[in-house]
Automatic annotation (TrEMBL):
Gene3D superfamilies: Metal-dependent hydrolases (3.20.20.140). GO terms for molecular function: hydrolase activity, acting on ester bonds; zinc ion binding. Keywords: Hydrolase, Metal-binding. It catalyses: N-acetyl-L-leucine + H2O = L-leucine + acetate; N-acetyl-L-valine + H2O = L-valine + acetate; N-acetyl-L-methionine + H2O = L-methionine + acetate; N-acetyl-L-isoleucine + H2O = L-isoleucine + acetate. Belongs to the metallo-dependent hydrolases superfamily. Phosphotriesterase family. Its cofactor is a divalent metal cation. This is N-acetyltaurine hydrolase. The gene is Pter.
Length: 226
């Protein structure tokens, strides 16, 4: 299994959390608060506004900035390890500020295996360059992130995903799904998908993946309970 520190035998992974985010910038998914609640949106995270933040997690700007909580994440990883945990599958992909250098540092400092995710998040996070790419170009990027390294580093991803999908699915997301399937057929690695918020979305995604050559027995559909 490819981790950010290198290959690890599957039997050495230990207890594994398969869908976590240790560092990311989710600002692209900010949802403006209701009129009159703007001060709550812009303020710091405090005990007095925790209830509102829990009810409006995407409307509080600081709450979307996980990348600035590295010390707290490190502490949580150490608690995880002390409780018997062994591995984290980190699902942050291109579009929400994947940071493989930070993941490598966290793995080194905590002794927890961390597996990084290759690929692209939802359409609203796709750059103009990403939206203009062909399926073949997108496939090449995903394959390179696993075989060569991600984000200009030699730190390799070990899974593809989470691949972000909206509802309705956009043309750019459709191409990313096709590229995901083609990359998986070359690599043989697992795929993790973030479906759109509609009960038909997972079925549409599986159909697209299958038609493009994916192995759905190695595909995880996340967030089905929301």
């Amino acid at each position: 299994v490819q981790t950010v520190l290198g290959l690890v035998e599957p039997g050495c992974l230990g207890y594994t959390l398969t869908h976590e985010h240790l560092t990311m910038n989710y600002s692209s998914c900010f949802c403006p608060p209701s009129p009159g609640q703007e001060p709550l949106s812009n303020g710091p995270i405090e005990m007095k506004n925790l209830f509102w933040i829990k009810q409006n997690p995407y409307s509080h700007k600081e709450n979307l900035l996980l990348y600035q909580e590295t010390d707290a994440v490190r502490e949580e990883l150490l608690h995880f390890k002390a409780a018997g945990g062994g591995t984290i599958v980190e699902n942050t992909t291109t579009g929400i500020s994947r940071d493989v250098n930070t993941l490598k540092k966290l793995a080194e400092e905590t002794g927890v295996h961390i597996i990084a995710g290759a690929g692209f998040y939802v359409d609203s996070t796709h750059s103009a360059q990403t939206q203009a790419m062909t399926v073949e170009q997108l496939t090449g990027i995903i394959v390179d992130e696993v075989l060569k390294g991600a984000d200009g580093t030699n730190i390799k991803c070990g899974v593809v995903g989470e691949i972000g999908c909206s509802w309705p699915l956009t043309p750019s997301e459709h191409r990313v799904l096709q590229a995901t399937a083609q990359a998986q057929s070359q690599l043989g690695c697992p795929v993790i998908v973030h479906p759109g918020r509609n009960s038909d979305s997972p079925f549409q995604i599986i159909r697209i993946l299958q038609e493009a050559g994916a192995d759905v027995s190695k595909t995880v559909m996340s967030h089905l309970d929301r």
